[in-house]
Design a protein that fits this description.
- Helix content is 87%, strand content 0%.
- Helix 1 (4-31) runs antiparallel to helix 2 (35-66) and helix 2 packs antiparallel against helix 3 (71-108).
- The protein is elongated and about 55 Å long.
- It has helices at residues 4-31, 35-66, 71-108.
- It contains three helices and no strands.
- The protein is mainly α.
- The termini are far apart.
């Protein structure tokens, strides 16, 4: 069973990853409008990654601290949770990039390939 802490963290890491994906591709587009806005969104990708890492690290620490078991079980769980958060962040990051590409194609009325 998934604990509420783990579920909440997965949702937040996914949302932050989605924002990071949008910000990554939105930054060059907004750079045409205002350089400061483009710079802010470019830095937003790194901020999103940092927030996801810190949130994941804190959750893994709490989950491992609450575990009863040997060293191997604790370290295996820590690695497993870390990989889970990395995969969720990566998937939602790519999803954010894809959503932006679709919205840009619709907004600019570009033809389908």
């Amino acid at each position: 069973m998934v604990s509420p802490l783990l579920a909440d963290t997965l949702v937040l890491v996914g949302l932050v990853g989605f924002y990071g994906g949008l910000a990554r591709d939105l930054a060059p587009t907004t750079d045409l409008l205002d350089r400061r806005l483009g710079l802010g969104l470019s830095l937003g990708v790194y901020v999103a990654g940092g927030v996801a890492v810190l949130l994941s690290l804190a959750t893994v620490s709490v989950k491992v601290w609450r575990m009863d078991g040997g060293t191997f079980a604790v370290s295996t769980s820590a690695v497993g949770f870390s990989l889970l958060f990395a995969v969720v962040f990566g998937l939602f990051f790519r999803f954010g990039v894809a959503v932006y590409a679709v919205l840009l194609r619709i907004g600019l009325n570009l033809p389908q390939r």
